[in-house]
Amino acid sequence: MPATWFQAVNPALIFILTPFITMFWARQSRRKKEPSSIAKMSLACLMLSGSYLLMIPAALASAKVAGGLVSMWWLIGNTFLMTIGELYLSPVGLSLVTKVAPARMVSMMMGVWFLSSFVGNYLCGFLGTFWNKIPKEMFFLLLAVLTAVTGLGIFLVLKPLKRALHSEHAPMDL
Length: 174
Hints:
By secondary structure, this protein is an all-alpha fold. It has one domain. It is built from six helices and no strands. The radius of gyration is 18 Å and the shape is globular. It starts with 8 loop residues before the first helix and ends in a 6-residue tail after the last helix.
């Protein structure tokens, strides 16, 4: 399979998985067990961490194989978990911004949300410089730890953040 074909896996998974994720959230909502928007963002980071952990055995297997080639299913599994994390983060974050931003500042706050994506992508480029400097399994472990710490950090501020947002806004799913 040509490497360029992998660029189509994420968009295809977004189209395939979105209806299932929204049905899952609707089912959770009916049972009063749907996580808040902020909790979903924390879960997104933890799913991303899991996707990087999945790549550690692939990196170890690649180091043992002549030519370094391993099954494409490692990368597809990684992309699958990343896509679910993306679905838990991106639309939820956009929705959260529109819920909590004052009406006159919604457009600017959406810009700030996208600016944070820019900063994140820039930092990804910086982290990518370590690809040739450290063993591949350590590279994926570094990414897994960074995303897990972020997810756990969001989880730790979940209650205080919900309290602060509820005090300023009508109760909503934050």
